[in-house]
Amino acid sequence: MGGGLVGATLDTLRLTAEEAMGLLERGEVSRAELRAAYYDAVAARDAELHCYLRLTEDAEGEGVPIALKDVIGTEGVETTAGSRILEGYVPVFDSTVAARCKEAGLSLLGKTNTDEFAMGSSTENSAFGPSRNPWDPTRVPGGSGGGSAAAVAGGLAPWALGSDTGGSIKQPASLCGIVGLRPTYGTVSRYGIVAFASSLDQVGPTTKTVRDCALLYGVIAGRDPCDSTTVDVPPVEVPDAEHLKGLRIGVPRELNEADGIERGVADSVARAIELAEGLGASVEQCSLPRSVEYGLACYYIIAPAEASSNLARYDGVRYGPREAGGSFDEMVERTRDAGFGDEPKRRIMLGAYALSTGYYEAYYGQAQRVRRVIAEEHAALFERYDVLLSPTSPTVAFLIGEKAANPLAMYLSDVLTIPANMAGLPGLSIPCGLSEGLPVGLQLVGPQFSENLLFRTGHALERALGFDYVPERLR
Ligand code: GLN
User: Fold this and answer.
1) Cis peptide before 393 (omega within 30 of 0)
2) Integer angstrom CA distances of residue 93 from 73, 87, 90
3) Is the pTM of the predicted complex or chain greater than 0.90?
């Protein structure tokens, strides 16, 4: 790490946001030069990687540039959530997170690609075509926030924001070899974010280092009067300690030995566990039997149910393009048929079914009770352990097209990230090695509001692991 200035040119592949901040503060580089360096990288690589849906070359802000996932509402800048049904929608206000980035001086580079309405694990559900993985462009960058992750890993942005409902920050970070934080539910405002599943959606940072992650979390976190589910958070600490003395790590068996975890993934995580012990942590096996067995099924009741309600607003009247003609009902039907892709349609049908009279209790009500069990199972473990450790994704980046035709195979990408999300817990993914030349991600989960602890743990491990986040083919 370190460096970033190569002669007069900036090496955006290596430069961290923190280093970029230092260059700006010391006057070693101007705001315009910094932005130009990222746009040069966009010009060089975005035709292949397709990280961005649109660029904002005239954006203001004197600080470090940033990219925002296109579910994040931005005043005066089209916000589509990767869907045709929102094409041409230009918000008249900033989401709270976009406003906080602006207040901190961050300047917007552009809006990044996402699966339609953040539904997916590969960006292949984007109405505007998939993004590609900077480590191997024949492979997906993960999703739904694959555009943000590929932009950071490919040097097309110093850092970015994503959103995570079931794993959409952590899983793409894992597949792209960078850091991603899904914060504790309620610590980051959802005001002005295109809603998917409101009881799960949470915005968070996608960065090269854990320190960058803490810095960006510090910009966006905290109570917002416009979102009544938010709370004040403890002051954010940028980590610097390099040991884990006294830390008690639990290794849930079901999250580490689940069917479908690739051998190379398990091996990388095992090596990271040995390193953690070497840094002074105590490591013990533990168990989350019901969370892993029922988490995914429970998520695929709750998330589609909430989505079917949230997506009812796209009717051709209030947002985006309209398929005119016929009666009002026919207009709405035609608009929704043309505007939504297959995945949102699938979720609307699943969700509307789960919420229908006579089934509500059997599905949504029951899933809420299971969710409570998952939260309690995690809470019991946190009486004995400070953090829980597992792989983030069972696999490394898969090939474009490999899972696109099989929704169930795609859903399984999040089997290890969903349990913590259902419990409202924060999770940090950091790269921990390579398998078949592709990055492997390690997930650290802590109790609610334990972001500072996750940053300390992640930073110490990151230092010890010495993972090089610049994709091998671009070095
Ligand atoms: N892949 C999961 C889904 O399709 C999670 C997506 C997300 O976190 N937004 O729902």
Assistant:
1) no
2) 7, 17, 9
3) yes
For the Cβ of 295 lying below 6 angstroms from any atom of ligand 1, the answer is no
Residue 156 CA to ligand 1 centre (angstroms): 24
Please indicate whether residue 165, judged by its CB atom, sits closer than 6 Å to ligand 1: yes
| Span 113-151, pLDDT tens digits | 999 999 999 999 999 999 999 999 999 999 999 999 999
State residue 5's pLDDT score: 53
* Mutation choice for ligand 1 from 69, 112, 119, 347, CB with most ligand atoms inside 8 A: 119
CA distances from 220 to 5, 26, 81, 264, 394 (A): 28, 25, 20, 35, 30
**CB of 119 closer than 6 A to ligand 1?**
yes
pLDDT tens, residue by residue, 155-195: 999 999 999 999 999 999 999 999 999 999 999 999 999 99
Q: Is 144 in the pocket of ligand 1 (CB under 6 A)?
A: yes
Alpha carbon distance 443, 170 (integer Å): 8
Residues identified as active-site: 69, 144, 168
* pLDDT confidence tier of residue 428, bands split at 50, 70 and 90: very high
Best residue for ligand 1 mutational test, from 113, 206, 414, 429 (most atoms within 8 Å of Cβ): 414
Give the pLDDT band of residue 6 (cuts 50, 70, 90): very low
The CATH class for the domain spanning 4-288+376-474 reads: alpha beta
The domain ranges of the chain are 4-288+376-474
